[in-house]
Specification:
By secondary structure, the chain is α+β, with helices and mostly antiparallel strands. The chain has one domain. It is 25% helix and 36% strand. The chain contains 5 helices and 12 strands. A 12-stranded mixed β-sheet has the order 7-8-9-10-11-1-2-3-4-5-6-12. Strand 10 and strand 11 form a beta hairpin. The protein is globular.
Length: 273
């Protein structure tokens, strides 16, 4: 109840900021106890962008080849949430088939150029204490990392869109040199969202990075009975964030030394296709 009251106060702050920006236009439905949502299942289409910075300075032939290739991988994800916890993972019920030949080629190319990269399998958020548990896959092994949830410095904006019938407000934040924009639905009063994105007074239904959409909700089912799927990840070796960082740095160093021993630098590898 305390969390619900606090959420409504923050929502009112966002709504007030939004109304001042838009000249008191109407947004969504009125805030009311009857609108509280205690659980739900949200499915998303996620786009995992390739890091194409390795191809900078490539010859014209390679640039022409790159222009014809996909710039990322589309993935189907699912978010389960209730009033205390949420779990974000790959959608096991997805009918998405294997990637096409060009996408497979790019995946192989990027893996070779950039070296081993951790893959996020599951993200479990505990809303009551602000902690998270991540299950990562790295070089064929699973790891479990316990840490605090990301804190986002959101800035409310005047824009609104409708996603799956829900009027969504927007907020921005900056991560390094990237601009992140989230679209959240005040009518679905929960703090959670896909991936590590959270902290807005409403469910996050879409995320853009540098003007390109990377997450978009494809279905919303509220008040359902899939809460039993919200289970803490436990399949992997427990490791601290700092120790995992050291392991990652070590494996990247070993990989780069292996590449050098073969007489191919990363930059040269990117120019070969």
């Amino acid at each position: 109840m305390i969390q619900s009251i606090y959420m409504k106060k923050i929502l009112l702050i966002f709504m007030t900021s939004w109304l001042l920006l838009t000249g008191f236009a109407q947004v969504g439905k009125p805030i009311d106890d009857s609108l509280e949502i205690n659980s739900g299942t949200i499915r998303y289409e996620a786009v995992d962008k390739f890091d194409l910075s390795f191809f900078e300075g490539s010859d014209p032939k390679t640039k022409d080849w790159l222009a014809s290739m996909p710039k990322g991988i589309k993935l189907n994800k699912v978010l389960y949430f209730d009033d205390e916890y949420s779990l974000y993972e790959e959608d096991a019920n997805s009918t998405q088939g294997e990637s096409d030949e060009k996408t497979q080629t790019m995946i192989y190319k990027m893996d070779y150029i950039s070296g081993p990269n951790p893959k996020t399998i599951k993200i479990f958020l505990d809303q009551s204490n602000g902690t998270k548990i991540e299950q990562l896959e790295f070089m064929g092994r699973n790891f479990i990392i316990n840490s605090n949830q990301n804190q986002w410095d959101w800035r409310p904006e005047a824009d609104q869109v409708k996603i799956l019938g829900y009027i969504c407000m927007s907020a921005r934040t900056t991560i390094g040199n990237k601009e992140l924009r989230a679209w959240f639905a005040p009518d679905i009063q929960t703090w959670t969202g896909p991936n590590n994105y959270r902290g807005l007074p409403g469910l996050i239904l879409a995320v853009d990075i540098d003007g390109e959409n990377v997450l978009l909700a494809t279905s919303v089912v509220l008040g359902n009975s899939e809460e039993q799927k919200i289970i803490k990840p436990n399949n992997g070796k427990l490791i601290s964030t700092s120790d995992f960082g050291k392991l990652y740095d070590q494996k990247i160093k070993e990989y780069e030394e292996m590449i050098k021993s073969k007489g191919t630098a990363k930059g040269d590898a990117a120019k070969k296709y």
